[in-house]
Amino acid sequence: MEGKEELRNVPVEFVGEYCISCGQPLKPKRREVRAFVAILLVVIVAFSSVLYMQHNLLQLRESEIRSLTEERDSLKLIVSSKEAQITTLKEQNALLEKAKALLEQDKAELEKELAGYKTGGYLKLSRPTRAQLESYLRSDKTDQNKWREGSESSIGYVCINFAADLKANAMRAGWNISFVSANYNYSKEEYGHAFNMAILEDGSIVYIDTYTDTLYGSVEALIAYATAPAGKSPDYITVVEIAVVW
User: Fold this and answer.
1) Which of 105, 124, 132, 172 is within CB 3.0–4.6 Å of 128 for a Cys-Cys bond?
2) Closest C-alpha among 147, 172, 167, 116 to residue 228
3) pLDDT surpassing 80 at residue 145
4) Across residues 147-156, what is the average pLDDT?
């Protein structure tokens, strides 16, 4: 009885934790355990939700970073391409400026030469001797130009260009050399060729192969030995049309 009396005298704040009869600690109440478990679950769920949101946000940022990186790389390529285009345009502009300067120089020289050649409103051109013509052809650089076939994207430089340039250069040098265009048949096929002709001081006529500066006595001989089909006898060549421009 004395022990029970002592327990009864225990302060009220400790009574809920110990058994009044035997003094043993009391087990936690079930609803308190349930409340604790519920709170713990809420905390876990909330923490998981935060982690899930942070994970999604991180993935979104990584996706944005990848997208921005790809866009940056694409812009770098565009900038590099534009810089290359600018460099090319600058080079082309420099070439055009150089060509313009050369054309201006040629224009001034032509105007000066034309002023010196004019006599009574006409150009004063001379017929060369064979030796003078051969000497001039050795000094002229037309035959050193590169032959190239034209296309839809670029202008070619073929026999008509060689012949036209040789005539123009000869005129500047004071020699009367003509431009000739001829159509001819070979093996039942029709071809065309352009070259030059000169009437020499003694009245004889020579035909000039502009590619090699070789002189021929007839159109057929020039075509046979200087053009396709090269190496054939002039007897196989039939000239059907010819035009001469002085």
Assistant:
1) 132
2) 147
3) yes
4) 88
